[in-house]
Specification:
It is a single chain. The chain is mainly α and about 220 residues long. The chain contains 13 helices and no strands. The radius of gyration is 20 Å and the shape is elongated.
């Protein structure tokens, strides 16, 4: 880990500024291919991310086991994810939303997988059709499959309102004990669970009705 990476990891704005002014190689990578910008996307304040981008740090360098770029990583960020995603898209361009990692995940898939509804909405502001049709390499999941599997009801609504195909089926080989499923299969399973909870007194009829009205 370089001093700049360490400063980003520690969210040390003063040290980051000092190292950049000293002419440090801003795009140097560690053993996993991560740059200082990649570290800042994960650990630093919005200020440091802006500083590195202003210093022309390269957000397209991929890193880690899944070979993800900075936009991919930003979708997993704990705080200020939307703001960081917006900053990166200004530099990387909206077409970057369609770039896949090694597992076939695009940024939208990662945002769904971490329950980031606000990030999903930002990503869908352009190229929505292409993103909603994009599938992962393992089970051929769309963003809607991932949202349904995680029971992310608000994200399911968002994706359906954006005209995701609720009848699309997983298309690649799955383990023998798993059947290919359309989104309606997942939703039916959710509804069965909600009905069971109503019968058990764990969920009100009113709330169950609200949940069933997904669109």
């Amino acid at each position: 880990m370089t001093p700049l990476m360490q400063a980003c990891r520690e969210d040390n704005t003063t040290e980051v500024d000092k190292l950049i002014k000293a002419g440090i190689n801003i795009d140097e990578i560690d053993a996993e291919g991560r740059t200082a910008l990649f570290y800042s996307i994960t650990f630093s304040s919005l200020t440091i991310v802006k500083t590195l981008l202003s210093a022309n740090a390269d957000p397209f360098i991929v890193a880690g086991l899944y070979e993800r770029n900075c936009l991919h990583q930003a979708c997993k960020r704990a705080k200020n994810a939307v703001e960081v995603v917006q900053l990166l898209l200004q530099v990387m361009g909206d077409v970057t939303k369609l770039e896949q990692d090694k597992a076939g995940f695009i940024a939208l898939h990662l945002a769904v997988s971490t329950g980031k509804q606000d990030v999903c909405r930002e990503l869908l502001s352009t190229h929505s059709k292409e993103q909603l049709h994009a599938i992962t390499r393992d089970y051929g999941d769309t963003a809607l499959h991932l949202a349904a599997r995680r029971k992310e009801l608000n994200i399911i609504r968002l994706l359906v309102q954006a005209e995701a195909n609720i009848n699309q089926i997983n298309v690649t080989t799955m383990p023998r004990n798993q059947k290919r499923k359309s989104i309606t299969n997942y939703i039916e399973e959710l509804m069965e669970k909600w009905i069971a909870k109503v019968k058990a007194g764990e969920l009100s009829c009113k709330r169950a009705a609200e949940l069933c009205c997904i669109p």
